[in-house]
Design brief:
By secondary structure, this protein is mainly beta. The chain has 14 helices and 54 strands. Strands 43, 44, 45, 46, 47, 48, 49, 50, 51, 52, 53 and 54 form a twelve-stranded antiparallel β-sheet that branches. A hairpin with a 5-residue loop joins β45 and β46.
Length: 1021
């Protein structure tokens, strides 16, 4: 390609020889995917040598063993320089292959389609230059009819990794290189369907469909008359036809005087005669404003449509046929469309006339094995799992995802914010006003809209991410508003510093990681001007997503708030083989990539292999489509109120069953017939055979109602657990009363007995490998580490404590041990243990810790001890079965859960605090052969049981570095700090902080037999 200077250094150049973007699925294709000859060059303008290797297309060369590694950065550019400079050493892949042109394609129009290439694509065919394209996440097409030849052809793609465009693709992502989506050729006639725009909406009655259909007929040669476009909608007998216009430019002269006068009258609003209005003016307008050659525009009305929505994604097949002047069907395509209406009314985003809450997730194109290349099966698995866990919306962060994903969102039902491939994070406030990059802004936004316009799932267009706000955004926004007024615009940069600003770029107030207090305060301030939907919130890095429930409490209770998008869907850990044969999930720096941003890419609600993280269960329950409530009086009679939280469906797709438990053991239950409750409505149901046993002191009675799919859904089979609701049958009592009842239910203190302690006053017990001591520290989570808490804990020396015995006192059967814990920074914490023997060999431990004022933000206050190896079986009464924490526990139901100690391990890619269980009442550990023990707590407490010490976790950088210990490490916390989301967002709420003061807690260590059946000791609850 004869361009000087090099095309990868010219930001004004966005494409050369590239065809306009369109949305026509031309079907006559020749796939070029597979193995290509390949060379990786060091410089962008190097020429290939004689020796070729092979690479897979689509594929990232960075994931195929070539001498160029993946690199992860969040904000900083991966190389030094200022726009549009690129490094001299610039990895460049040259792909080459031959293909045979089908004989039937002779004389036809032939187009090359390259689905995506990072970041500059330069095409040659049979030695002839064809074209250039930039934008790593959109397809490039080139007409090659004049250079393709019958028989054998040689296609060469040169892909340059670093370019002026890299500065506009500075997303929080792995940097790769390669051809990352499919490559193929397709053929059309010399007259063909160039583009189809089918925007389906709803009339004011929300039952009549509207279809704005615009079909562009393309002419490879001179435009000719007589070509006809037909359109048919499945299920309707009607066929719409129109001839493709061709403007008569020979006879179009200067308007005559009376025509000029008529045009002036129309413009000024002067009255017209009936003939002027219906005959003369339309004819004159067609002369003055001739249509684009080949463009057919139809506005169609379709009665009694089923509106498209995530709950009911009704799609209609739209057939578009191009007929020649002789009536022959030259080309026919079928699109799937859905009728829905998107509008903003006041402070509400309305979908089909209803305000909606967007339970959203951000998603990259990512695969741990192939990097940027994602198969249809993988995309389908993403969408299905999102549906199963209660998401109804997706943001294509931060570029157009593979087009197949949008087909799947249409099909399964997910709202989509479609985002352009624009992020200039390292040059946040400059490139958006740099005229050299104006073309890039408008080109990337407009091409995305042209590609994705027909998808009913797309409800908002996003102008990109983290790129400031400048004239380039204004230009791109103006283009979209002109081309597609059916959808509002979204762009966080436009409202970044002022949510109520006077701007035209975003129709949505879409802040990033705002505190709950800020969004609620704004909604109540009277200054709000747009619907508020958080484009990113609740950063899912490691053990995170604390206060997710409180976010949704605020959203559901505050007018003007309409949801948000969690960051993000998947941990971006790349599969990496190590020299010793082990494999791990790699993050920034693991490929010796510099600069890098470490494990900041490990921030999804699912692990790299798509295994759900515990936080995902929290979201699933918060998104429950039906909720259950009952007053104490109503519950006594078995009367429940059901609230249908859906927007379209009634409850007919669900089945329900209830269960009554006492201390986690089932004592009653059965199926529950659901009434017909309309969307948004409430209904009453009575529990059949409702006869709960009388309440006994020290026990807990719970009603649990579970809802499952009644029949197969497209995204899950019948019987899938959709959600649950749980109600206590008994009035809550004070912690003091709970403690009294719990401890009274234990075996009585043993008269005349004493507790064995060693010379340091530490408990001696045959099943303890390490005695209980005071715990103030946890292995830092990513939120702790990045949010700065871990640094304070280390500065205080909480991970390096020394214990000094003060005294051992004996009062009758009680042994009182006083000690001081000194941190490495010299802070002293007083600690008292009161140990009493219990009949049957148990021990009652009552503890007190005095936290000084300077320790104003602790990870925990509690006890830690180790149990001898061999007690692997675990049972507990409290929320479960998955991990929970004080500010992330609504997704777990109170019950009696059975598991193993090893199964409590949560494999966060970078090891950290994990496996905790909030509000545990008691737990049992045993070997299944009669050896075991039970721990009973004075009140619901945070507990963890693991084979790893906190220091083991803190010292490891990858999960595969951990070596589980044979002993079991137990933490019983009087208080445990919430998780928050401070790796990129707010910390936990004040209610979940652990500050100075006096903490008291008690627990009993009881012998227990084989004990899943031995509930007597555990019936302390």
């Amino acid at each position: 390609m004869d361009v000087t200077p090099a095309p990868w250094t010219i930001p004004e150049l966005t494409g050369l020889g590239r065809l306009p973007m369109h949305s026509v699925p031309h079907g006559e294709r020749l796939s070029l995917d597979g193995r290509w000859r390949f060379q990786l060059l060091r410089h962008a303008d190097d020429e290939p040598a004689a020796a070729w290797q092979e690479a897979t297309v689509p594929g990232c060369w960075t994931m195929q063993g070539f001498d160029d590694r993946p690199q992860y950065t969040n904000v900083v550019m991966p190389f030094d320089g200022v726009p549009p400079q690129v490094p001299a050493e610039n990895p460049t892949g040259v792909y080459e292959r031959t293909f045979e042109l089908p004989e039937t394609w002779a004389g036809r129009r032939v187009v090359l389609h390259v689905g995506a290439a990072e970041s500059v694509l330069i095409v040659h065919l049979n030695g002839h230059p064809v074209g250039v394209s930039k934008d790593s996440h959109l397809a490039a097409e080139f007409e090659v009819s004049e250079v393709v030849r019958p028989g054998r052809n040689v296609l060469r793609l040169r892909v340059v990794k670093w370019s002026d465009a890299s500065y506009v693709e500075d997303q929080d992502q792995w940097w790769h290189g390669g051809v990352t989506r499919s490559v193929y050729l397709y053929a059309t006639g010399r007259v063909y369907l160039a583009d189809v725009r089918a925007i389906a909406g709803l009339a004011d009655d929300l039952a009549t469909g509207t279809l704005d259909l615009q079909v562009d007929v393309g002419f490879a040669d001179r435009p000719e008359r007589g070509w006809v476009v037909e359109a048919r909608l499945a299920g309707l007998d009607e066929t719409w036809r129109a001839e493709a216009p061709v403007a008569d430019r020979v006879d179009a002269g200067t308007p005559r005087l009376y025509e000029q006068e008529l045009a002036s009258r129309v413009a000024s609003g002067a009255p017209l005669t009936d003939e002027e209005r219906t005959v003369v003016w339309p004819a004159l307008y067609a002369q003055l404003m001739p249509p684009l050659d080949g463009r057919v525009t139809l506005r169609l009305t379709v009665p009694n449509v089923i509106p498209w929505s995530p709950e009911q994604p009704a799609l209609y097949a739209l057939a578009v046929v191009l007929r020649s002047p002789t009536g022959e069907a030259v080309e026919e395509i079928t699109l799937r469309t859905g009728f829905r209406r998107v509008e903003i009314a006041g402070l509400q985003l309305l979908l089909n006339g209803r305000p909606v809450l967007l339970r959203g997730i951000n998603r990259h194109d990512f695969d741990p094995l192939t990097g940027r290349v994602v198969s249809v099966e993988e995309m389908r698995a993403d969408v299905v799992q999102m549906k199963r866990f209660g998401f109804n919306a997706l943001r294509t962060s931060h570029y157009p995802n593979d087009p197949t994903l949008l087909d799947l969102c249409d099909e399964y039902g997910l709202y989509v914010i479609a985002e352009a491939d624009i992020e200039s994070h390292a040059f946040y406030g400059t490139l958006c006003d740099d005229p050299r990059y104006l073309n890039a802004w408008v080109d990337r936004v407009s091409r995305m809209v042209l590609r994705d316009k027909n998808h009913p799932a797309v409800i908002l267009w996003s102008l990109g991410n983290e790129s400031g706000h400048g004239a380039n955004h204004e230009a791109a926004a103006a283009w979209v508003r002109r081309y597609d007024p059916s959808r509002p615009l979204h762009y966080e940069g436009a409202i970044h510093f002022d949510w109520a600003s006077d701007q035209d770029v975003s129709d949505i107030t879409c802040p990033m990681y705002p505190p709950i207090s800020a969004v609620v305060g704004h909604a109540r301030s009277g200054r709000q001007r747009h619907p508020l939907i958080m484009c990113e919130y609740s950063h899912a890095m490691g053990n995170s997503n604390g206060t997710l429930a409180e976010y949704w409490d605020a959203i559901e209770e505050t007018p003007g708030l309409q949801g948000g998008f969690i960051w993000e869907w998947r941990d971006h850990g790349l599969a990496q083989s190590l020299p010793d044969g082990r494999r791990r999930w790699a993050y920034g720096g693991d490929f010796d990539d510099h600069p890098n941003d470490g494990n900041f890419c490990i921030d999804g609600v699912v692990f790299p292999d798509r295994t759900p993280k515990p936080a995902l269960w929290e979201h699933k329950q918060l998104a429950a489509p039906v909720r259950v409530a009952a007053t104490p009086d109503a519950l006594r009679t078995g009367r429940l109120e059901l609230h249908n939280r859906q927007e379209v469906r009634d409850l007919g797709w669900l089945r329900a069953a209830y269960q009554l438990t006492v201390d986690g053991e089932r004592v009653g239950g059965g199926p529950l017939d659901l009434p017909s409750v309309p969307p948004g409505g409430r209904g009453t149901v009575f529990l059949p055979d409702w006869n709960p046993p009388a309440h006994e002191a020290g026990t807990e009675r719970w009603l649990t109602v579970r809802f499952v799919t009644a029949t197969d859904e497209p995204w899950t089979p019948a019987g899938f657990d959709v959600c649950w609701a749980q109600l206590p049958l008994d009035e809550p009592v004070s912690p003091a009363q709970i403690a009294a009842e719990r401890l009274a239910a234990l075996a009585a203190p043993r008269a005349g007995g004493t507790i064995d302690v060693d010379e340091d006053g530490l408990l001696v017990h045959p099943l303890l490998a390490a005695p209980p001591t005071l715990a103030l520290w946890r292995a830092p989570t990513d939120n702790d580490r990045i949010g700065g808490m871990a640094a304070r804990w280390r500065a205080w020396g909480l991970d390096r404590r020394t214990r000094s015995l003060t005294s051992i006192e004996r009062h009758a059967a009680a042994t009182v041990v006083r000690a001081e814990y000194g941190t490495a920074a010299g802070v002293v914490v007083g600690h008292v243990q009161r140990l009493r023997p219990l009949t049957g060999g148990g021990v009652l431990v009552e503890e007190e810790a005095s936290i000084p004022a300077e320790l104003d933000d602790l990870a925990r206050v509690g006890s830690v001890f180790e149990i001898a190896a061999g007690l692997e079986q675990l049972e507990w009464f409290g929320p479960g079965p998955h991990e929970t924490y004080p500010d992330r526990r609504r997704g777990a139901a109170v019950g009696r859960w059975r598991s193993t100690v090893a199964a409590q391990y949560v494999p966060y890619v970078r090891p950290q605090e994990h496996g905790g269980h909030a509000d545990v009442r008691w737990l049992w550990l045993g070997d299944g052969a009669g050896r075991g023990l039970t721990i009973v707590l004075d009140r619901p407490r945070q507990v963890s049981v693991t084979h790893l010490r906190a220091a083991d976790l803190a010292n490891a950088t990858h999960d595969i570095d951990l070596a589980p210990r044979p002993e079991t490490i137990v933490h019983l916390d009087a208080a445990h700090r919430g998780l928050g989301t401070a790796s990129c967002g707010p910390d936990t709420l004040p209610a979940y902080l652990v500050g100075p003061g006096t903490y008291r807690w008690s627990w009993a260590l009881l012998p227990a037999g084989a004990a899943s059946s031995d509930s007597g000791a555990r019936r302390a609850w």
